[in-house]
Amino acid sequence: MQPAGGSTISVQAPDSDIIFACSHCSTSFVVDAAAAGMTLDCQKCGKPTTVPKITLEAAADNAVKISDLQHQLKENESQRTEITGYINQLSIQLHRWKLRLQSLNERQEKLQADLASLSASTR
Ligand SMILES: [Zn+2]
Q: pTM of this prediction?
């Protein structure tokens, strides 16, 4: 199955490393994902900087997943609408058949009654 929209966003193993830039000197560092949310001293400027909890790659990956889930939800919703329509149609048809059967039963009773009364009078 092709990804929705055909866009290819490279995902660099979101749960292995985090690439982030120091908030003071903008030097890029790679840290283990376990350091997410922790405050570390920058190896270059020495100032404390917070490791983001989510990488850009993971954010992009999430965006793709969200769009995919929204697409699936939309598709699911349209199938629900379709099936609900079928059920409604068949419910109406079922109701009609029940009414038809009821009138046939009533007619049967009337015909049997007529037949019984005629048979009785000719005897
Ligand atoms: Zn720094």
A: 0.43
Examine the domain organization and report whether 82 and 109 are in the same domain: yes
Distance 40 CA to ligand 1 centre (A): 10
pLDDT of 60-76, one tens digit each?
888 889 999 999 999 99
Tell me how far the alpha carbon of residue 50 lies from the centroid of ligand 1, in angstroms.
11
**Cβ distance 41 to 63 under 8 Å?**
no
Long-range contact pairs involving 61-66 (C-beta distance under 8 Å, separation at least 24): 61/9, 61/11, 61/14, 63/9, 64/3, 64/7, 64/9
In a shared domain, residues 22 and 73: no
Place of tokens 């015909």: 111
Q: Two tokens at 66?
A: 């969200």
Distance, CA of 93 to CA of 19 (rounded, Å) = 62
Please state, in angstroms and rounded to a whole number, the distance separating the CA atoms of residues 40 and 29. 11
